[in-house]
Specification:
Shape: rod-shaped
Largest sheet: none
Helix content: over 70%
Number of helices: 3
Strand content: under 5%
Structural class: mainly alpha
Distance between the termini: 38 Å
Order of helices and strands: HHH
Length: about 180
């Protein structure tokens, strides 16, 4: 019961640590992707600003335009891939945060259950202590009944059994009727 629960909590804590490490690596990768995207944009700006259109021939302009179009298509595809990867990383981060929150809730529940368990164990221990006290008291009562019975026997022997109705002075006493009150 409790052992399996503690083992599950330890496993979840280990999972949480590995998830945090994974989140850190994803954040590093995200930073690298953002840097790469910024670099692509800078490269495009350089290509556009590098051109001196007045001294180029029509063929050179068309060739340059074709190169810029290919680079634009490649950069657009790379940007789309990077944006998708950033979105994926953000989704993973959200999921890992949810798992961490779930672990925190499980740890709180575990602490509460541990407190309840401790309280129940204390009640059980107290009950066992009370049961032992009752057993001791029963032994004392039995011993007192024997002493009273012996006293009664001596007193009736000394008086010659001269009590009314054949009963001694203590025979009707509730302590001496131990067999009647015990199951």
């Amino acid at each position: 019961g409790v052992g399996r629960y503690q083992l599950a909590l330890r496993r979840m804590a280990g999972d949480l640590l590995s998830l945090r490490q994974h989140v850190t690596s994803l954040e590093v990768e995200n930073g690298q992707l953002r840097h790469s995207l910024a670099w692509q944009e800078e490269l495009g700006q350089e290509l556009l600003s590098d051109v001196n259109l007045d001294v180029m021939t029509r063929e050179e302009l068309l060739d340059r335009l074709g190169t810029l179009k290919r680079k634009l298509v490649a950069s657009t595809a790379e940007m789309r891939r990077l944006k998708d990867r950033v979105q994926q990383l953000q989704n993973e981060l959200i999921q890992k945060n949810d798992w961490e929150q779930e672990l925190v809730l499980l740890q709180q529940a575990h602490r509460q259950q541990r407190a309840r368990l401790r309280s129940c164990q204390e009640k059980v221990a107290k009950t066992k202590g009370l049961e032992e006290t009752v057993r001791q008291q029963e032994k004392v009562i039995e011993a007192m009944e024997r002493v009273l019975q012996e006293k009664l026997s001596r007193s009736t022997a000394n008086s010659g059994g001269g009590c009314q109705g054949g009963q001694g002075p203590l025979e009707g006493h509730p302590l001496l009727k131990g067999d009647q009150r015990r199951p």
